[in-house]
Specification:
With 198 residues, the protein is mainly alpha-helical. 66% of the residues lie in helices and 0% in strands. Helix 1 packs across helix 4, helix 8 crosses helix 9 and helix 9 packs antiparallel against helix 10. It is elongated.
């Protein structure tokens, strides 16, 4: 079999990065190179021609996940109407959905890579830098008034992690609903003045 063209090699590399991004979010970065290459439809030998190391691939997979606008939910969570509050509520509803719980490989990289980066904080400066920027960007999309969105993002990521860990039990959906309610119903009380009774 002849050598692949440079264009084909680039396509293969992109396929491996996309496959790794999905598999790492779904199963963690402990996925073997052999399993990863098999899932990408390529041989293991091609890996070392494309990447310096598995850590190099992890860096690229994390970056790819944050660059992919559909890596959040089936609708992509963009702001088509220009209405920030409507987009924020849509993001919350979709993030804390059964679909997102059940599709980690296609889901948000903030929750998808949190456990691996938490276990291996020295995974790589590039990975951590990309991840931190991704966290800040996701939080900014939730920001309202004086709220920078970080606590809201923490609630969403934590609820999603708990829901995934309890999948198969009714509490899983209860956790998602509780977080959705906490994040959307609190909005209605923000503008109402507090009346003292004393």
């Amino acid at each position: 079999m002849g050598r692949v063209s440079q264009a084909q090699a680039q396509k293969n590399r992109q396929r491996v990065v996309a496959t790794a991004s999905r598999m790492f979010r779904e199963k963690g970065t402990a996925v073997s190179v052999a399993d990863l290459m098999k899932a990408a439809g390529l041989t293991r030998g091609g890996f070392h021609k494309q990447f310096v190391s598995k850590e190099d691939l992890v860096d690229k997979a994390i970056a790819h996940a944050f660059e992919d606008p559909t890596a959040h939910s089936p609708a992509g969570l963009e702001e088509p109407t220009g209405d920030h509050e409507a987009a924020r509520r849509t993001l919350i509803e979709q993030y804390l959905s059964v679909w997102h719980r059940d599709h980690a490989g296609e889901g948000c990289p903030v929750s998808g890579f949190a456990a691996d980066l938490g276990r291996e904080p020295d995974q790589g400066a590039r990975s951590q830098h990309v991840y931190i920027n991704g966290v800040r960007n996701r939080a900014a999309r939730l920001a309202t008034g004086d709220d920078d969105g970080i606590a809201q993002l923490c609630t969403m990521v934590g609820a999603l992690a708990l829901a995934r860990a309890t999948r198969g039990n009714p509490i899983s959906e209860e956790l998602l609903q509780a977080a959705r309610t906490a994040l959307t119903e609190s909005d209605s009380g923000q503008c109402e003045p507090q009346h003292r009774t004393d």
